[in-house]
Structure formats: structure tokens, C-alpha cells
Amino acid sequence: MSAATITATPAATDAHIPLRNHFRHTGALIRRNLLWIRQDPESMFDAVLFPVIFTLLFVYVFGGSIGKSLGGGQEAYVQYVIPGLLAMMGMNMSQGVGTGFNTDFNSGVMDRFRSLPIGRGSVLIAKIVVELMRMLAACVILMIVAVLVGFDITSWIGMLGAVGLATVFGSALMWVFITLGVTMKSAQSVQAMGFLVMMPLQFGSSIFAPTDSMPGWLQNFTEYNPLSSLADAARGMMVGGPVAHGLWVTLAWSVGLTAVMAPVAIHKFRTKN
Amino acid sequence: MGPGTVLGMTRIDKNPNGGNTAVTVRGLVKHYGETKALDGVDLDVREGTVMGVLGPNGAGKTTLVRILSTLLAPTAGEATVVGYDVLRQPRQLRKVIGLTGQYASVDEKLAGWENLYLIGRLLDLTRKDARSRADELLERFSLTEAARRPASTYSGGMRRRLDLAASMIGRPQVLFLDEPTTGLDPRTRNEVWAEVKSMVGEGVTVLLTTQYMEEAEQLASELTVVDRGKVIASGGIEELKSKVGGRALRIRPVDPLELRPLAGALDALGITGLATTTVDPETGTLLVPILSDEQLTAVVGAVTARGITIGSITTELPSLDEVFLSLTGHKASAPQDAVPTDTREEVAV
What we know:
Chain B: It comes from Streptomyces pseudovenezuelae. Chain A is mostly helical.
């Protein structure tokens, strides 16, 4: 074997992986993550059931009374809460990427991937692509349920824009959850941590109810909560109202989160033993 | 024609025993804070041979394998695999190695076939080649029937075989097996041994870590004994066996008070070559290393001549503990709790 008898000079740089191979690797890993879903359909429960349950719960439990304060009834609340739930969808779905990575690292399969001549980014990108698919699936299901409970889509383009914005924000959040997933010891703790962070952010926002009746300190919080901006922008796009402010604030948050957390996540991912 | 030829400039060192070195490790150090997982390890594995790395838990075996398979960066020192440096040329290196970790590193949610197909695609095989390689390896490792079942339904032995199959997809030149049979029952262990032997028959160089002398003897031609991140002995398996005794004769006199006088008498015979008789007061037995049937006969003769009653005589392969006892004078144990005990034992010796 000639390869075994010969060595490179110290100056030789590491072999370059052609772009096509990166695509092939990422494709193979996307297939793997999709097979996971086929093998374990329960992993789609959050994407499928979450939009259904939240929509039914909020519309029928709180819809009447919050709708009254909006100057209408349950129908008014449907128009209010659906864009909010859409905003929430990106955030909730982005959590899965953290628990998924944690499982991979703990099971040793990540060792196998890392001992193969592939770019480590392929593993990361494949996971993100599949999570985005899940996110979009959840959005579609939400919109179907929304129409069933009487949501009136006034602008289809606006709806697509809102889905897009929620996805952009959700992908930015994924970097936070990837960091958590790589750093924390078990998948359960990643989930618990995600829950702890998300609960106050979700409810301390304009997602479920208008903020004007909240106490001043909470209003301050909701004002700076990116989920409020996202929900307001989605609402503006889907049912009419101001869009620009919420849109820019959400985009700024997305860019900021990605700029700060993506390098941290990638570094943690690359250097994790 | 390998990837190394393109960049090839210098030949690597010839091993003094002849044959090219597939794995070279020089002064390898890995610290985790205060803990020295590896503390200056030197090692050579000749092409086409099986190197056994024998040591107790916490000796640094897994750390060594993780560094050699580029999963971990060393604190200091150098290591190359078929000439590729672990730090400078990790990607070329990954093309020529296969890894089977201590815990089966297969995707449990995927079917056996899907696991192998995925790795084939990650190793840049075409779809067609990846498919046929997966079929071929499942057949070879007797997993064809379970090919479409998720790996989570496999038994421990099947999972380990799938793991071995996965590490063979890229036709590696060097295979790292980290405790391949730990946690397997004896029958399954024999199956895995047979697979490893057949892989070696195909010319793969293997570096294998183990806690069992028996496993090392079955598979390895050369042995490196490690303890607390240091190499404490190395050489051909026969050479080491003669140091620690190829077999050991365990003698239990009915009267424990006979232990030490009997040990003295046997040592005085001068028949046991390099190693000496050890007394194990806990079990009330003597362990006599023997190298040949003649020595066995001589020892039995000497025991009979003393006219003492013997409860039992058994022959056994030396355990890891006994190997350590012979080589270092202390028992193999995890580094944390070993330090105080060892100091005492060494004083006693």
C-alpha cells in the first residue's frame, strides 16, 4: 500500500472537501433525520398537536372574554390570537434541534460522524433543514385549524410573509437551542431549560392578549420582548395594522441572535469531546 | 495510489522489527485539568498486525483511541496514522480509519441497512455502491434478516456486529476497536472475536483496547500495557506472557498457614523462569506462573513432595490484575483510589 508508506510534509494543508460532496453529505443526513420521524412518528406530535391544542384552547376558553375587551366576541379573538400563535410556532419548533443534538452526542453516533471525512457543518445543517421543515409543517397545520375555527385570511401574501418571518426568527433561536443541546448533560434538561426560558417569553408578550391592561413593569417587558414584535408584525401582515416597526425589530433580533449565538453554537459543536 | 501519494514527500520510519508502521505515537499527553489521562505514551503498530492495548478502567485507553481517531486533540505529543498527523491532516486520516467505540455508535432509530447506507453515502460512495456495500456487509456480519429492523431492537451482540460493519464500509487501512467485547456474554464475545480475526485476515491493521488478557491473547500479536496514562510494558504477546507467565497454576492448600512456606519452596525450585510465585491471602491461594507442561509437572511434584493436603489446583490465564501484579507490583485499579493503597503496597514489596 503506497499510501501507508508515504507521509505528507508538515506544510501540507488538510484535504479540501468539494462543495458537491458537502451537498451529498448533508442530503444523506437530512434523509437520516427524516427517517427518524418515520421511525418515531411521535416526534411529530409537537408539530401536529401543538397548533391544534393551542388554537382550540385559547379560542374556546379565553376567546369569548378577551374578545369582548377587543370590542367583539370570539371571532374578534380568533383574528387576534392566530397571528400570535404563528409567531409562537417558530420558537416552539426550534427547541427540537437542541434535544436532537443532545441525544446524538450522548448515544455515540456523533463520534461516528466526527470520525468520518465529512465537514462537521453537514450534521448541523441537515438538522436545521429538517427542523425548518417541521416548523413549516406546524405552520400549515395551524393555518388549517385557524380556518376551521373561523379565521378570516384577509391577505394571502401577508400570511406567507408572517410564516416567513416566524421561520426566520425561529431559525435564529435554533442557535440558542443548539448551544444548549451541545452544552447540557441530558435531553431532559435541555427541554426543561427551553421550557423555563420560553414560558415567560410567550405569555409576557402580545401573543395571547393585548398588553394595555397589563401592569406597567410587565408592559415594559412585553415592549422589549421580541415575540411581541413578531406577533404584532404577523398580525399586521395577516389581518391589517401597523407592520413596519414589528418587522424591523424582529429582523434586528434575528440578525443579532444569529450573529452572537451561531459562532458560539458552531464553536461548541466543533470542540465538544 | 492512496491519497497520501499526492502529497507524499518523506517516508515514515521503518520499524526495527521490519514492516511499515501504520500507527506511530510519540510522547502523547492529554490532561483534563489536574487529571493526566495520558502521560507520555509511545506506541508503534506495524502494518497488518493487531496491537492490543491492555489496561484497567481509567488507564487512558479510550483517550488514546479518541485522539488517534481525531475526536480529541492531545495536550502534547505527536501521533500519525498511515503517515497522517492527527492534528494537521484529520480529514485524510479519517478516510483511512474505522472506529468502533466502547458504546456501540450506531443510530438506534435507523434500521441496520439504513445505518450502513448512510455511512456509505457519507464516505462518498455512489447510491448504487452504498446500497451494495450495505447488503454485502450485512450478509457478512449475519445481519441480513435484521436489516430492516431498527437497531434499537438488536441484541448487544448484533449491535456490536453492526458497529463493526459500519466501521468497515470505507475499507479502512487501520481499525480502532475500543473494548469491542465489554459487556457481552461469552458466546457473543466469541462471535465478535471471530469477526475481528477475519478482518485481520484481510490485511487491516487493528489497534484494540481491552481489559482482558484473554482477549488480548486471542486477537493481538503485540501488546502495550498501560496504567494511569503511562506505558508500563510492551512487546510481543509471547514475550510478555513469559514475563507474566503464560498460564498460572492456582493452588489452594487446605491449611492457609502452608501458603508462605509452600511459596518459598516453589520459588526455591527455580523452575518458573522470570516470574515468581504470588500469595493471595484473600482467597488463600498461591499463583504460580508456568511456561510449559514440564514446569507444571515439576510444580505438582514439589507440592506432593511436601506432603501437604491440597484443596484445589486449577490452571488459568493470568487476569489483568495478575499481569499488573507481575509487571508493577501493584494491582490494577482506577487512578483516584489507587494512589494511597499503592504507596503502602510498594513499601511492603
